Amino acid sequence: DQQVKQNSPSLSVQEGRISILNCDYTNSMFDYFLWYKKYPAEGPTFLISISSIKDKNEDGRFTVFLNKSAKHLSLHIVPSQPGDSAVYFCAASTNSGAGSYQLTFGKGTKLSVIP
Amino acid sequence: EAGVTQFPSHSVIEKGQTVTLRCDPISGHDNLYWYRRVMGKEIKFLLHFVKESKQDESGMPNNRFLAERTGGTYSTLKVQPAELEDSGVYFCASRQAGPTQYFGPGTRLTVL
Predict the structure, then answer these.
(1) CB of B72 within 8 A of CB of B82?
(2) Which residue from A29, B21, B63, B66 could staple onto B77, CB 3.0 to 4.6 Å apart?
(3) How many CA atoms lie within 13 A of A82 on its CB side?
(4) How far is B57 from chain A (nearest CA, A)?
């Protein structure tokens, strides 16, 4: 059973417009959420994160929104640029008793920004 | 500051052979993680080291996989003997304080 779901395998957006990537989770024990960006043949690169005690975190063009009651988070990219074209992974972690912070990933959404 | 490095970048082996993957975490990071992405699936947790100790190895698929982190610096992940279903990309990540993990470029393992 997938605890983190990214239901859109792909998304195409025009350059300059907003990109919205969505993520749903089922485990209410998750207390930290992260977005990673991945280019082909590279490892995931950390983009932005949010703690479960917040509902919004912003870093430049990137904003993550968290709706705990709906167990839903989204990543907004404004304005979208061609260099943003990549696969975006949503990940969640919990500080379990062992303090593991292991990440549970979604399957990713491939974003294509069209010039 | 150097990031997480992994070696080799790509390995092709025959079924039944042994392969050893290496990960060098960011200097000073006590926490080291191994993950794997099998074709078409999500990235999945394998295990977690704190310094040289295995903190959590609940994601290791079976006893053909052996991870070590002698001295609490670099880590190795050995697959012996390799099976076809072990093919995938193996990622290493490290972190110090806080939940954010930083990933290496991965090792693509192909078992023929």
Answers:
(1) no
(2) B21
(3) 2
(4) 10
